[in-house]
Amino acid sequence: MRAASGRLQDNPVVGQKRVLLAAPRGYCAGVDRAVVAVEKALERYGAPVYVRKQIVHNIHVVTELEDKGAIFVEEVDEVPEGAHVVFSAHGVSPAVVNAASDRGLHAIDATCPLVTKVHREAVRFARDDFEILLIGHEGHEEVEGTAGEAPDHVTIVNSPDDADRVQVKDPSKVVWLSQTTLSVDETMETVNRLRSRFPELHNPPSDDICYATQNRQVAIKKVAAAADLVIVVGSSNSSNSVRLVEVALEYGAKAAYRVDYAEEVQQEWLDGVETVGVTSGASVPEVLVREVLAALDDAGYRDVEEIKTAEEDLMFSLPKELRQDAAGQRDARALGGRPSGGGA
Ligand code: SF4
């Protein structure tokens, strides 16, 4: 655990200090599955196991997996032929799957099933010859993966302003899809602006912004309304964490900051602050939140109340490649033989 205590000073001028702790916060089902997939792959095949891109957008998680023997690469051509490679929770395009196969890699696909759902929608709408307006951040791995399912049919819409500019060939055959980790409110503004230009715009069959993103935004809206300061634990490249800062400011927090670690909390942020809201993005382990709470405790914020707006119990099974190998190992043990499918 990183040292957090002793850095922040208690400020006796401020009375009634308290913390409102948002729930749900932290790990979602897709992140949990992806991290466990890398750990299981390391256990089963031994180090190193390669991971294309950050398995989830959290520097602490990535560093811990590196310590256990994972090697993170940007592209599959950096992975030695025949090695095991895990695709991150954000998903990959078919071009990446093919490149891994051409290289003879043993790929383990840790794409979140809720991202895969959006991929399938893109494939289906492209097959029906729709033009797909994909609301999301250009350059984000998830957007690259989804767009790569139907590159000739997808146009990326980065923002509400982009919705006023985007051109389509046939306004009667247009559908919008979205990245899973966007601000719900901003996405709806983008959709409304698109619809004012293209009244026949089709909706996705179900919400693309995932349950975890939505739940964390609902919780921080409630907390922010009563908070002088909101601290969001999460990394700078974590889309849903960055959105939580924006949502907190929009819903009443006087100030909101994102930190990777407790030691990044600045003394001056606490000047005159009675109520601190705390939350964390979907890729953040709870230990990092506990360290922030410990730092706040040092500063006299000892009264912690959890504000829970939803229960979450969703869990995803491991990627099929690991399930298949597990079944192979069970069968081999039953026959008294060596495990099959063990790879390297
Ligand atoms: S944030 Fe949502 S889409 Fe992303 S991994 Fe978690 S559950 Fe899946």
In CATH, the homologous superfamily of the largest domain goes by the name: 4-hydroxy-3-methylbut-2-enyl diphosphate reductase, catalytic domain
How far apart, in Å, are the first and last alpha carbons? 33 Å
Class of secondary structure makeup? alpha/beta
How many distinct helices? 11
Shape: flat
Share of residues in helices? 25-40%
Looking across the biggest beta sheet, what order are the strands in?
10-9-11-1-12
**Could you tell me which ligands this complex binds, including any ions or cofactors?**
iron/sulfur cluster
Mean pLDDT: 93
For the record, the CATH architecture of the largest domain stands as 3-Layer(aba) Sandwich
Indicate the CATH class of the largest domain: Alpha Beta
Order of helix and strand elements from N to C terminus: EHEHEEHEHEHEHEHHEHEEHEH
DSSP summary, beta strand count:
12
Q: Which stretches are poorly predicted, pLDDT < 50 over at least 5 residues?
A: 1-5, 335-344
Radius of gyration: 22 Å
Q: What's the number of structural domains?
A: 3
How would you sum up the major sheet?
A: 5 strands, parallel
The fold-level CATH name of the largest domain is: Cobalt-precorrin-4 Transmethylase, domain 1
Q: How big a fraction of the residues is strand?
A: 15-25%
What would you note in describing this structure?
The chain is flat. The strands form three sheets. It has a five-stranded parallel beta sheet, sandwiched between helices. Strands 3-2-4-5 form a four-stranded parallel beta sheet, with helices on both faces. Helix content is 38%, strand content 17%. It has eleven helices and twelve strands. α4 (113-127) runs parallel beside α5. It has 344 residues and is an alpha/beta fold. The model is unreliable at 1-5 and 335-344 (pLDDT under 50). It has three domains: 18-27 and 211-308, 3-Layer(aba) Sandwich (Cobalt-precorrin-4 Transmethylase, domain 1); 29-112 and 315-336, Rossmann fold, CATH 3.40.50; 114-197, 4-hydroxy-3-methylbut-2-enyl diphosphate reductase, catalytic domain (Cobalt-precorrin-4 Transmethylase, domain 1), CATH 3.40.1010.20. β9 (229-233), α9 and β10 (255-259) form a beta-alpha-beta unit. The structure holds iron/sulfur cluster. The site of iron/sulfur cluster has 15 residues, from α1, α4 and α8.
